[in-house]
Amino acid sequence: MKRDSRLSGVLHVLLHMAERNEPVTSDVLARAMDTNPVVIRRIMSGLRDQGYVRSEKGHGGGWSLARDLAAITLRDVYQALGQPSLFAVGNRTEAPGCLVEQAVNATLDRAFDEAEALLLSRLEDVTLARLSADFQRRLGDRRNRHRLETAHGS
Amino acid sequence: MKRDSRLSGVLHVLLHMAERNEPVTSDVLARAMDTNPVVIRRIMSGLRDQGYVRSEKGHGGGWSLARDLAAITLRDVYQALGQPSLFAVGNRTEAPGCLVEQAVNATLDRAFDEAEALLLSRLEDVTLARLSADFQRRLGDRRNRHRLETAHGS
DNA sequence: TTTCATGTAACTATCGATATTACATGAAGG
DNA sequence: CCTTCATGTAATATCGATAGTTACATGAAA
User: Fold this and answer.
1) Which one of A76, A99, B37, B130 is CB 3.0 to 4.6 Å from B30, fit for a cystine?
2) Within this chain, do residues B17 and B47 fall inside the same structural domain, yes or no?
3) What's any one GO cellular component for it (chains A, B) (predicted)?
4) B18, B61: one domain
5) Same domain, yes or no: A61 and A23
6) Which residues form the domain of A39?
7) What CATH number is given to the structural domain containing B19?
8) How far apart are CA B83 and CA B118, in angstroms?
9) Which of B2, B75, B87 to mutate to probe the A interface, most A CBs <10 Å?
């Protein structure tokens, strides 16, 4: 089953937006996410409605962050996307008449509910600021590796 | 995103098979799961290969359980289905060159891995025997409710 | 040797999600 | 103003994954 990559993609573009100080157009973001500008607008509209980003029309327009990175958790972003269903596996029918199926559903539902609660709490623990810091650390690591390799090479 | 209901469906038919003492044909199972006999055979083939069920050809043939209900966990069934991916949400790309995306993926992967581990351990805790007992309890409940209602009505 | 059932390959249909097109709205530049 | 650039959004097209179907082979029982 194909996975919904909007969460991953949106986090990606949000962090890229944070690196810039000016609005970024849907066109630029679309290229970064390898998709269509209209798709970007559709996805970002939820974030705008929740007040996480701003959009401006006309010259110099585009998307920009409306809040501090530390004030946005991954769970916020997930919710702003409309809380797409997290699981690729589910019950055949809701509210079946068959008692066998009711028993099956009850057990599966409990297991999935627990997993969902854990997942959401993990997403809540992480802010965009932390993701950004993680990115900066990786950037430093790469630079160090590069310096060492260059020193070896010379 | 549409959910894969094979796990739910297979558990359903396995419990129905347990209620009978004779082989059940793919045709009958297909009607119970509201699908096609060929689909049943496809799905059950994994369970057969793992030794959980048997299939016989010819007159009086069909599917029957090869093990005790207490010896089959929901995780066993999940694995026999080929461990379909549990989550409907995932990373846009694996092994991206972009460091921003690497940071995003690393964080999401950790959260999803934890949730998956929890979910699998819950599935491992439940045997088909326990599901069957749950079903029997529901059957008793329904009978009791029905008796009470009948008494009220007369 | 006929009937019934599974095994499996190949093909088709369906359906949801993404991509695209088209046009409206509105802001900034000249 | 009016042209350009950008978003907003509805309508439509395209694509891919999965279930469903058809067809035929295998093999067991009557």
Assistant:
1) B37
2) yes
3) cytosol
4) yes
5) yes
6) 6-128
7) 1.10.10.10
8) 15
9) B87
Residue B151 is predicted with a pLDDT of 67
Query: Distance (Å) from the C-alpha of residue A45 to the closest C-alpha of chain B?
Result: 19
Give the B window 101-130 contacts with A, CB below 8 Å: 101-108, 110-112, 114-116, 118-119, 122-123, 126, 130
Reported as type and span, the H/E element at residue B58 is none
Between CA A93 and CA A96, with CA B11 as vertex, the angle to 5 degrees is 25
Single-letter residue type at B48: R
| Residue B83: predicted pLDDT | 96
Whether B78 is in a domain gets the answer no
What are the pLDDT digits (tens) for B34-85? 999 999 999 999 999 999 999 999 999 999 999 999 999 999 999 999 999 9
Tokens of B24: 């059940």
Does any CB of chain A come closer than 8 Å to the CB of residue B131? yes
B101 in the same domain as B59: no
Torsion A141-A13-A20-A53 (CA) sign: negative
Task: Pick A146 or B67 by higher pLDDT.
Answer: B67
Strands (E) in chain B, as ranges, are: 53-56, 62-65
**Does A145 reside within a domain?**
yes
Q: Output the six-digit token pair for A150.
A: 């260059």
| Res A110 pLDDT > 80 | yes
Count of structural domains within chain A: 2
- A59 CB and strand D closer than 7 A: yes
Q: What is the pLDDT of residues A73-94, one digit of tens each?
A: 999 999 999 999 999 999 998 8
**Cβ of A57 near strand D (distance < 7 A):** yes
Which residues 44-73 on chain A approach chain B with CB closer than 8 angstroms?
none
Q: Which residue is closest to D18 in terms of CA–C1' distance?
A: A1
User: Is A41 inside any structural domain?
Assistant: yes
Nearest to residue B134, comparing CAs of B18, B29, B28, B46?
Answer: B18
Residue B98 contacts A where some CB pair is shorter than 8 Å? yes
Do B153 and B101 share a structural domain?
no
Same domain? For B137 and B104 the reply is no
